[in-house]
Amino acid sequence: MGETMTRRLAVVCARGGSKGVKGKNLRELAGKPLIAHTLAQAAASGMFDAIAVSSDSDAILDAGRAHGASHVVKRPDEMASDNAAKVPAIRHCAMTVEQETGWQFDTIVDLDCTAPLRNLDDIRGAIALLEQSGCANVVSAMPSRRSPYFNLVELDARGRVRLSKPLESPIVRRQDAPKCFDLNASVFAWCRRALFSDHNVVLGEDTLLFQMPEERSIDIDTELDFRFVEFMMSTKEDPHG
Q1: Is 60 helix (H, G, I), strand (E, B) or coil?
Q2: Which candidate, 152, 175, 156, places its Cα nearest to that of 165?
Q3: Which among 51, 49, 45, 56 is positioned nearest to 14, based on CA atoms?
Q4: How far apart are the first and last CA of the chain?
Q5: Is residue 119 within 8 Å of residue 241, measured between CB atoms?
Q6: What residue ranges do the domains of the chain occupy?
Q7: Using the 8-state DSSP alphabet, how is residue 209 labeled?
Q8: What class, spelled out in words, does domain 8-116+185-193+218-234 have in CATH?
Q9: Quick one: which of 69, 16, 9 has its CA closest to 39?
Q10: Rounded to 5 degrees, what are φ and ψ at 211?
Q11: Average pLDDT, 10 consecutive residues per value, the chain (241 residues)
């Protein structure tokens, strides 16, 4: 008997509103709207049976069609507010595409369009980790510059500085602290059973981490982020590789 085919869906979520960088999902980066770079990466990876854009904005959905999305899904208003969780929007998008295609996707991957510095190996590697391990989901992250055990602090009720996560035996060198990672909003991959559960959180008991380097881990949230990504894109020979 032949091998069972694994169907995969890429979801690119992009709301119309943006607080940090106005209109960032359609803002031009290296000659294309920001969202176009992630759509190009999804297609070039060769990993997906369908590529979908989820948005509350008709302009973003139009850009999705123009730049290679096989499906565009209008997001309900209640899933597009500033306070809305992202997982329900991904689930809604996946369910809509399944209804349109008649397919059932085994692997659903969210590629955030605000993280265009990822490369194809990052996408393929996160998917391989998910499917080979049999875990619920995979999140991408980079080694953290700050550590809650050493130099990440909080203020207590009296306004005094305290380490976020003090150890019983304090350390004097950052290198001796337990390893910590920053989620970089680049690649989130779920197996079907996990995404279609009732949980709306990204990190669970069966989540694995796919590590990426800092130079591919910038998530555009401010004007400074955007300018830095513009510079990094200008130095890459292949912006989608």
Answers
A1: helix
A2: 152
A3: 56
A4: 35
A5: yes
A6: 8-116+185-193+218-234
A7: E
A8: alpha beta
A9: 69
A10: -85, 135
A11: 76 84 91 97 98 96 97 90 87 97 97 96 98 97 94 94 91 89 97 89 93 96 95 77 60
Backbone angles phi, psi at 208, to 5 degrees: -110, 160
CA distance 88 to 56: 14
Chain center to CA of 131: 18
Q: Where are the beta strands (DSSP E) in the chain?
A: 8-13, 28-29, 32-33, 50-55, 71-74, 107-111, 137-143, 153-155, 161-163, 181-191, 207-211
Which amino acid belongs to residue 234?
Answer: S
Write down the pTM of the prediction: 0.91
CA distance 44 to 38: 10
Report DSSP state, residue 101: H
Length of the chain: 241
Q: What type of residue is 143? A: P
Contact assessment for residue 188 and residue 209, using Cβ atoms and an 8 Å cutoff: no
